[in-house]
Give the backbone structure.
Amino acid sequence: PRCMCSTRIPCGGCAAEFRTEFGTRYPNSRVAYASKAFVNPAIARIVAEEGLGLDVVSGGELAVARAADVPPDTIYFHGNNKTPEELEFALDYGIGQIVVDSFHELEVLDAIAGERGVRQDIMLRLSPGIDAHTHEKTTTGILDSKFGFSIETGDAAKAIRQAMSAANLDLVGIHFHLGSPIFELEPYELGVEVVLNYLTQFKEEGLRLEIFSPGGGFAIGYVRSEPPPQIAEYAESITKYTSRLCEELGFGTPLLVVEPGRSIVGRAGVALYTVGGIKDIPTVRKYVSLDGGMGDNIRPAIYGSEYEAVLASRMSAPPAEVVTLAGKYCESGDVLVKDITMPVVEPGDIIAIPSSGAYAPSMASNYNLNGRPAIVMAKDGDARLIRRRETYADMMMADVF
Ligand SMILES: Cc1ncc(COP(=O)(O)O)c(C=O)c1O
Ligand SMILES: N[C@@H](CCCC[NH3+])C(=O)O
């Protein structure tokens, strides 16, 4: 794996790399950026300019897509409980595909499309019963999951038949997503194989597989000890299995949609913190308190996620001691990096935590009424603010006296 910076952590990908690695191997493919990893209008604009599609999972993400003029036909609307209002918004915006995730949604969407006298393209999310060996809180393709129609229970077959006979819906594709981050290639290969083989029984009943999507979940390097596969390796596995099986099973060459989120923005984001108080408990632990924490990155607290950190204000300072980087929130679990070797740090120093671009800003909160941080986009020596720091007034904006 390559390393693009002094942290020596293997990188994930980037939009162009995804387009190239999938596009050269399987020309009828689309990379749909998963907005949940982090989106705002500036990011959505870049996504559209890079020629990527967009995976959204709420009316809010859809509103950002619309604000940034993302072409609606390149949008895939996911989620296990889209509200009727969100579905109406999606139909108003004319979005390409709604990825239906429950029988209830199938009925509600069919009715809404009917009331409007329109036909809506849909895909179905299937749950293939495959363990992708990721964190128990982020695994989605196993039987015990709230997502998707299970193949094992027979729900998938029922949903496919119900979707094909829906009065106002056109079933154009099938989706599955196994979880995130997935550090192995085999789960994707198995997923493609299991789902495509399963679908053959519906061909005679009229199933059209115009779109096939094995989702996202591609891993990135968070720590040196756990390098991810390269994007080319994911692309090789997925396209090889998809092409071979689609040909063998007579599905032709459906549009292959992959949905990377983390692997596009994760390594692009570096979180910067200022050191405040330092507490040394001799023979136990030295806590270095930062001006952020679980409010801007909840991942260590909920998944036990690990990160590296560097002393950005004095990059050449030699490693000196083991410290724990704690946040400023009122929780003992508010620790960003536990027991890491750093140079001697002092109040006012800047600490950088790489690989913070995905699911840190997007899952940020105002806990303890701390404002969420500013976000600056940088390229070739040029830096621009794409989100300003939140003010106290921002945090009271929706409150009513
Ligand atoms: C349906 C779907 N697609 C894509 C993604 C994106 O995952 P990641 O950011 O790990 O690529 C997710 C989140 O796990 C998802 O649920
Ligand atoms: N939010 C997660 C993973 C779930 C992604 C969306 N299904 C993370 O930070 O790693």
User: Anything to note?
Assistant: The radius of gyration is 22 Å.
